[in-house]
Specification:
Helix content is 74%, strand content 0%. With 201 residues, the protein is mainly alpha-helical. It has two domains: 8-89, RNA polymerase sigma factor, region 2, helix turn helix motif (Rna Polymerase Sigma Factor, Chain: A); 98-200, Arc Repressor Mutant, subunit A (Orthogonal Bundle), CATH 1.10.10. The protein has helices at 8-16, 20-42, 45-62, 72-89, 98-113, 126-130, 132-143, 147-158, 163-170, 174-200.
Amino acid sequence: MEHTVPTDTELIERIGKGDNEALELLVSRYEGLVYNLAYRMLGNRDDAEDVLQDTFFNVIRSLDKFQSRSSFSTWLYRVATNAALTKLRKRSRRDRSETEFLDEANSVQKLAHAGQKLTDWSESPSDRLLNSEARKKMDEAIDELPEMYRVVFVLRDVEGLPAAEVAEVLGLSVAAVKSRLHRARLYLRNRLSTYFTGETA
């Protein structure tokens, strides 16, 4: 006898009727996604665990308000992103300002337009990108991004969401998502080009 995998909608309906097993299935289906998003946003395992707990607490509390006009995963991304941003804003350290970031991103773009070649780190062999040192450099560079550029990059390029879904999660236009993503990529490419150029020198 075949067992069909329940859809998110079916699980939500069962949870509304008090089915705890359905709740466990829904959490197990998405806890990895939420944790990975939070860790990429915050760069700290303890903070990511806190965001994971906060996200599902908020989801369970607000599940009756979920409207199926969007997918459950999109709504979950929105809840998790808000929880991660809340945690990020509570940190005592001063994040780099958007003005500082834009100044540097614009400088990189001007150099590219002037013909100065930037190493295309994105074409490096996957084993180089996946080694622990390269991953650490990537995480450090992501951590330097202002929060709204960071979250756009993480949702689009790390989590692989389409630009339209990122826009829906963040309440932005698709054009705004693409603009922020472009600047984030320029900045990260510059940072990682320096690393890979030094590595191969």
